[in-house]
């Protein structure tokens, strides 16, 4: 995720990192080539008495802009929903640990409970990004749970089960009352809801047919546009055509990038930073020092 300080408007015009321009540069170069072809072929084009006007492109451009706006709103809505789930995860894990420390102020049990919560958080991050959670499990998970959780293909689900079993054991031992257990259970259900919501976003992309028809229409529009402009613009056709194409191709590329907010692209959610923030807060609440260093943007103002 790009975390960029405030810049002068003129400097921002030339920002490269975090822009989708590197992703579409080759496609824009093809559009420039089509503009040059249209200019070179203009005499032959006029001899054949072909008059491709801008009128149909104006109508099609309005329709494409509406659909691109809808597609971007949908993708950005997925991004915002994912961020809200991670915010709820922070609040819920913090509430669970606070509840446990107030119910049973035992440092050893609080540290074990916090380890389970942190292992759940980092396992969820790895599940969403398709990476291995083993290093973080060995670092955070209490030893007696490590073998069972590591053997599971769904580590976050397994840790959530152990959290419930852990609280159930203490309820049966009389360490927490039934009323307090219900409060814990409500927060565990919230963790389950967050897990399910993030899994839904990760496994349910925008329907492919919808993305495909928009993709094809945008490229067909950008390919034929120079031939509609060349009669009026002549040598300026490649410049104007590439500017219009940049707008449409950029909006489509942004929508594709935000559709999956859990990746490592510059504009995706900084899941490592979010997990580290949760770890800092839980360890500070548990007086477990030293704390991990706070996430800082790298030299390109990027958080992963």
Describe the structure.
It is elongated and about 95 Å long. It contains twelve helices and no strands. Helices cover 74% and strands 0% of the residues. By secondary structure, the protein is mostly helical. The chain has helices at 9-12, 21-40, 42-47, 55-103, 107-129, 134-140, 143-150, 155-172, 178-203, 208-233, 237-259, 271-285.
In short:
This protein has 304 residues and is mainly alpha-helical. The protein has twelve helices and no strands.
What descriptive keywords fit this protein?
304 residues; elongated
What spatial form do the alpha-carbon principal axes imply? Answer: elongated
Number of strands: 0
Stretches where pLDDT is under 50 for at least 5 consecutive residues are none
Radius of gyration: 27 Å
> What sequence of helices (H) and strands (E) makes up the elements?
HHHHHHHHHHHH
Give the mean pLDDT: 89
Q: What is the terminal-to-terminal distance?
A: 6 Å
